[in-house]
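Figure S4 source data
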Amino acid sequence: MISNPSRHCTVELQALPSRIGQVRRIVSAQLRYWHLDPLIDRAALGVTELLTNVHLHARPDKTCVVEMELLLDRLTVSVRDRDPRLPVPADVKDTGTLATCGRGLAMVAAMSESWGARPDGESGKVVWFTLPASVATPERSARPPRRTPREQVAPRFADVVAVDAHRPAHAPARSAVVG
């Protein structure tokens, strides 16, 4: 289920590896729709890390809800699951250089403005992070401004170059038959 009234988007899913990629695409598309293109990479990375944690650690099931909310100049991305255990960030200094886990929340903390976790009712939690949306004003957006039909520049006839003017001269035709 996807809903996006104004500046709010919610996606409910099973945190399975195949679904995590789909949610990354949904997050990217929603941020493009909101003209927040500069936030796409960080938001997609953060939501991937949070969903991976649900996939690896949540019990009794992997059902979760991803929510994005844009208020004033701040984007909040949260993941709600049914496991009441709050995440404990690993000490990155104790994590080996070849370790494949233990760095997710440290990455979320490093790329976000703020992050946290809180209990959600009696049997669940919400893990969230925020990104400053003020860097994504329309003037600084990666998307160029749209032009009205009158502003679009059409080439003048004098600027059009004939195609034949740039062709090399052809050699005379030769027969491939000996004789």
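Figure S5 source data
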Amino acid sequence: MEARSITAEVPMTPRMSEDPAQLVPELADVSAALFRVTGNGSVPRPTISLVQLRAGQIVGSTYLTVLHTGFLRKAGESEERITSVASWQDSPYFTAAERAALALTEAVLTPPAHGERVPDDLYARAAEVYEPKALATLMFVIGQVNFFVPVALIAKPVPGRAFDAPWK
């Protein structure tokens, strides 16, 4: 595989010309169920969006990064919080619960050199700030964004287009 020059323009067309959700309409039921599970109110919506943004950054998806940055802006999040998600470890803008959520996201998405992805001490820190239902929901939030990562990386929807129209 040949690397793209850093000065080359990136095409503004999706790699996959047809919307995968249109090709596989059964996805609508799965997607709706995932949104119901993660939207049960036990994890604050801003935390969910921060997790989704961080996941997009980790996997290197411009589409997911732009999408979730836009959602955070529409929700009224400050530019400081949005832009410091990539460096959340030393940012003063996040609560202990948000830090735990971001740490879990990184642990799940980043293979360690050795040991478990989610060590016991990280789980314990998360369990200190989340009730059991919220912690379970947070696991599903991380799973939900990971469910859509292959679409973002393989089909390459166009970043910045309407959420329901990245294929047009």
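The longest helix spans residues 132-155. The CA atoms of residues 4 and 10 lie 9 Å apart.
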